[in-house]
Amino acid sequence: MSWLVWALVVLVAVGGALYLGFTSGTKQVYVADVDLPAYHQLTEDDLELKAVDRSRLPRDAVQESGRDGLLGRYTTRAVKQGQPLLTDSCGPRLPSHAIMAPTVALPWTAETSLGGQLAKGDQVKVMFSPNEMPSSSAGPVVDALVLDLISGSSVVLAVRPADIATIATHRGSSTLSIARVAAYAGS
Fold first, then answer.
1. What residue segments make up the domains of the chain, in order of their start?
2. The pLDDT value given to residue 179
3. CB 144 within 8 A of CB 121
4. More exposed terminus of the chain, fewer Cβ within 10 Å: N or C?
5. What is the 8-class DSSP label of residue 62?
6. What architecture is the 26-94 domain classified under in CATH?
7. What sign does the dihedral 19-27-41-95 (CA atoms) show?
8. Given strand 141-150, what is the order of strands in its sheet?
9. Helix (H, G, I), strand (E, B) or coil at 47
10. In angstroms, rounded to a whole number, what is the distance separating the alpha carbons of residues 141 and 163?
């Protein structure tokens, strides 16, 4: 019977050691090296590998195998220096310098979200149909990149600086709709 007690003691000790090994200590993760604004595309200068206490590491912290897994992705919320990047606050990887344009938020509707089928990284055209003219008359078209989708609230787009005036001019007097030109395919 004593061998059974010893086996049980050893099993409990090994299990406890494994549990402590996985739940305590630190983990190396990438954190913001500087304060990052929302909709900022990540570069090498933005990231720092840092040991973070596992008990303070958020469950949804981005767990990339290396810096290359984060480069080209972008923030969808501001991130303070020293904070880990969170899964729900990072957009997909885009080609280098894809977000060099201003951002604009359009109201979330069936027409601007493609019935909820729009995705981050999609390339789209924003169309304005004047409310005061017959529905057959076409308004201006703006090329854009979908950066964020805030369900029920807004669709955040990167647009060319010259298109900000077009959007401001036609936003209140036109019906907005979006057409997907190219779905996000990754990079």
1. 26-94, 103-182
2. 92
3. no
4. N
5. -
6. Alpha-Beta Complex (3.90)
7. negative
8. 103-107, 154-159, 141-150, 123-130, 174-182
9. strand
10. 9
Parallel, antiparallel, or unpaired: how do β-strands 141-150 and 123-130 relate?
A: antiparallel
Name the CA radius of gyration of the chain, rounded: 24
Say if residue 166's pLDDT is above 90: no
Taking alpha carbons only, the member of 157, 36, 183 closest to residue 98 is 157
- What does the H/E/C string look like for 122-146? CEEEEEEEECCCCCCCCCCEEEEEE
Q: Determine the pLDDT at residue 134.
A: 57
User: Could you give the CA distance from residue 39 to residue 160 in angstroms, rounded to a whole number?
Assistant: 15
pLDDT of residue 1: 63
User: 4 CB contacts (<8 Å, ≥6 apart)?
Assistant: none
pTM metric for this prediction: 0.76
Q: Each residue of 84-124: pLDDT tens digit? A: 988 888 899 998 888 877 899 999 989 889 998 999 999 99
Work out the angle at residue 64's Cα, subtended by the Cα atoms of residues 62 and 68, and round it to the nearest 5 degrees: 125
